[in-house]
Amino acid sequence: MNMKEINWKERWREAYQQSSIGKARGNRDWIDFWNDKAEWFDEATLGDTKEPAILLEHVKIGPGMTVLDIGAGTGRFTIPLARIAKSVTAVEPSPKMNSRMKVHLDDQDISNVTIIAKKWQDVILGKDIGQHDVVIAPYSLAVEKMGDALEKINSATRHHACVMTWFKRTFWDYDHLWPILHGGEPFIPGPNYLYMVHILHDMGIYANVRVFFREKDKVFSSEDEIIEDLKSALYFTPSDEKSEKRVNKILRKHVREVTREEDGKILHHGTSMRVMVYWSKSPPST
User: Fold this and answer.
1) For the segment 35-82, what is each residue's pLDDT rounded down to a tens digit?
2) Where in the sequence is the domain holding 63, given as residue range(s)?
3) Cβ 218 vs Cβ 268: under 8 Å
């Protein structure tokens, strides 16, 4: 097939809909999901300087520049970038994520951050926000209409844009557990970063790609906490008490095989391949 004949936006949408994660997500309310995860996410990412450093290796951000952070969470990228840039606009719809980010901003006397409490797809360019010198979307574009999201990012940036995503699905590869928790249904992965690259190419954008590795311990206070985290990550909803007990037993065995104890905490070590897709529209003047 001629590559020019492929509609990559539609291919992304189809692959997303057919994927195990896409089917499991459905019309789930992601604001509630991230409200529930806010405390854990904040503790897991607090003080992480590695990925902001990787971003800055490839995307120039200077003192006179404005940055838009899509899916800002509790400020993992917003806070370090606010120390460099003129200002940062953080788009984050979760009230509890925003609340934690505001605490960090106050504690660190950072006053050049504006928070927009909306989903990216609901943000209106020219009304809610204007153009920014740099737009970033770190691990926040789990969307069905990727073409629309990327076009909006490109419209929002004056100079540089960057999307970070996973080369594979997560740090911790739970995919082998999916059939056990979903009635033998095999795990079907969703569309990967190459779809993004092709969508951008069809927009006349020739993006750069940087693949990098992360290695990290995920920290929990108990086995039960890990089990609940796994069930959430695997989109498992028990049909009855018997089903839940069966799955809890399977996951407890898995947890004991892959974790270690240290200083009263349970650590789950993992590695992942991650991807940064980035491009420039024009060089900044400052």
Assistant:
1) 777 787 788 777 778 899 999 999 999 999 999 999 999 999 999 999
2) 3-214+272-280
3) yes
